[in-house]
UniProtKB/TrEMBL annotation:
InterPro entries documented for this protein: FAD-bd_PCMH-like_sf, FAD-bd_PCMH_sub1, FAD-linked_Oxidoreductases_BP, Oxy_OxRdtase_FAD_BS
Keyword S-adenosyl-L-methionine: no
Organism: Aegilops tauschii subsp. strangulata
Range of residues in the leader sequence: 1-22
Sample GO molecular function, one term: oxidoreductase activity
Entry keyword annotation includes GTP-binding: no
Family: Belongs to the oxygen-dependent FAD-linked oxidoreductase family.
Domain of life: Eukaryota
Protein name (record): FAD linked oxidase N-terminal domain-containing protein
PANTHER family in alphabetical order: CYTOKININ DEHYDROGENASE 9, GULONOLACTONE OXIDASE
Keyword annotations from UniProtKB, A to Z: FAD, Flavoprotein, Oxidoreductase, Signal
Length: 112
């Protein structure tokens, strides 16, 4: 009987933990590649929770980097860089003004 209970417990743990996911963290080389882009502005990799806030305060999806463009060319270079990373990259780009979306539409979870 004890053996049967242990088997059920193992099965329960296996099934329960199979639904656990981890947040995707981009590899260091992806973040380093952003630092090599010739920009008039800059990327920030700190204080990301502030970029994850929106006007509605209902959603919070931190990015991995925030682009502070110095020119329109900075935006074009960044979008092109992410595009050239290919379809297997999970890095995304979202435009953000003053964060006046109510449900996180201007956020890029794990993106720029």
């Amino acid at each position: 009987m004890k053996q049967l209970v242990l088997q059920y417990l193992k099965l329960f743990l296996l099934l329960g933990l199979s639904g656990v996911t981890t947040e995707h963290v981009p590899k260091y080389d992806v973040l380093a590649s952003l630092g090599t882009l010739p920009l008039d502005g800059h990327f920030s990799f700190h204080d990301l929770p502030a970029a994850a806030r929106d006007f509605g305060n209902l959603s919070s999806f931190p990015p991995v980097a925030v682009l502070h463009p110095g020119s329109v060319a900075d935006i074009a270079r960044t979008v092109r860089h992410v595009f050239l990373m290919g379809e297997h990259s999970t890095l995304t780009v979202a435009a953000r003004g003053h964060g006046h979306s109510l449900y996180g539409q201007s956020q890029a979870a794990g993106g720029i």
